[in-house]
Amino acid sequence: MFTGIIEALGTVESLDHQDGNLLIAVRSPLAAALKVDQSLSHQGVCLTVTAIAGEVHQVVAVRETLAKSNLGTLCAGDALNLERALLVGGRLDGHLVQGHVDATGSCLTRTPDEGSTLFRFRFPRAFRTLLIEKGSIALNGVSLTVFSVTDEEFSVAVIPYTLEHTTLGRLQPGDSVNLEFDLVGKYITRLRQAGVPD
């Protein structure tokens, strides 16, 4: 479980395709504090650390992960948002994030707006019941509040600090983003679909 508050930026050191999986080597300031078998969020995707060597750790993205996320488009040198799992008793500064990406969306616009930057995104219509005005979303692993929500689009406002310390600062119209919708909303939607009374 994560919170959507990014701890550090990593850099893709190398990529290796093996039997449908993608082995990703990442250089980051977190490497020295990691352990093999530890869960670590990469662009919002929970992956298990499989090896560590100096300032570089390795993770494996399986076929299902590659199909649901944008990790398959990574190139050497790309930046990654990194977050270690939430400690029990720690502050929940963002919102509850599983690291299980639901779908990818696309950046439509990026507009400066009096001290912040407004982004507009398109997302798959099938997830429209999981977004509400002023609700939460994890976007490339970053916890953000959505507004101007429609059945296929939403906006977020990003402060300069977040732009500087996450990959959102590099985001441009046309780029793909990993989306994880709010966990509580998923359970409520599932219960209603199952006919559980209010």
Q: What's this model, at a glance?
A:
The chain is mainly beta and 198 residues long. The protein has helices at residues 63-68, 160-165, 183-193; strands spanning 8-18, 21-27, 39-42, 45-53, 56-61, 79-84, 103-113, 116-122, 136-139, 142-145, 153-158, 176-181.
Q: What is the CATH C level class of the largest domain, in words?
A: Mainly Beta
Q: How many individual helices?
A: 3
CATH topology of the largest domain: the name is: Elongation Factor Tu (Ef-tu), domain 3
Number of beta strands: 12
User: Could you tell me how far the N terminus lies from the C terminus, measured between alpha carbons in angstroms?
Assistant: 27 Å
Strands side by side in the biggest sheet: 1-2-5-4-3-6
| Class of secondary structure makeup | mainly beta
- Proportion in β-strands: 35-45%
How many domain modules?
A: 2
CATH architecture of the largest domain: Beta Barrel
Rg result: 17 Å
Q: Provide mean pLDDT, rounded.
A: 95
Low-pLDDT residue intervals, each spanning 5 or more residues: none
Order of helices and strands: EEEEEHEEEEEEHEH
Which bin fits the share of residues in helices?
10-25%
Global shape: globular
Largest beta-sheet details: 6 strands, antiparallel, barrel
